[in-house]
Prior knowledge:
- Keywords: Coiled coil.
- This protein is of the alpha/beta class.
- The chain has 8 helices and 7 strands; from the N terminus they run βαβαββαβαββαααα.
- It has 2 domains: 173 residues, Rossmann fold (3-Layer(aba) Sandwich), CATH 3.40.50.450; 50 residues.
- Helix 1 links the parallel strand 1 and strand 2.
- The N and C termini lie far apart (97 Å).
Amino acid sequence: xxxxxxxxxxxxxxLDEVVRSRLDNxxxxxxxxxxxxxxxxxxxxQQYLLMSGFSSxxxxxxxxxxxxxxxxxxxVCVDPPIGSKGRDYYVAKDLMMADDSDIGLMIWDCKxxxxxxNVMQLLKKKKKSVVYISSKKTFLTVTSEADxxxxxxxxxxEDYAAVDKKIxxxxxxxxxxxxxxxxxxxxxxxxxQRLIASHQAEIINHEKTIxxxxxxxxxxxxxxxxxxSAL
Length: 231
């Protein structure tokens, strides 16, 4: 019996019909679902599995008590790194689920670093992820670095930079484009450079405007100073 790691963005509160259909397939397949205790996708999937009467579920949490366990299922408690907080605190359970699972089902908003990190961890362990891209309402299967590139290419420039800053996916995975193929990440980097250059140009223009306004202000002050000095 295979273990399925389900994860997703905390901001996704409602499961699309196609996702519920996939969950129905999971239920009929007899897989064991490994899921976290967060809000968003974790909680919504837990509620759907409970409503469907599915009992082959394990809830993973960092620490001793899960935040959400809708079905009262068995809990796997994972000790966090000493002194960890924020995302570093909760990532311990995700790493454990990646170890314990055979395959992943991810529901992603193209912004969540945690979900993308889980895909990356499974890929590093040569495990498949099926990712539902909520904004495109489509599934993408990730079994290779090329697939992962195609996945991150769905992100907006600003989100790409913000997520990469948190989980460093572009440096952890040593992406090398195949000969003759477009390097999507290189294109993304060029896009980010253009965005930076655009903002820098705006800053220069603002500085020029400020300098001109200051010059005009000084000109307005000069006659007034002369008038008062004559009294």
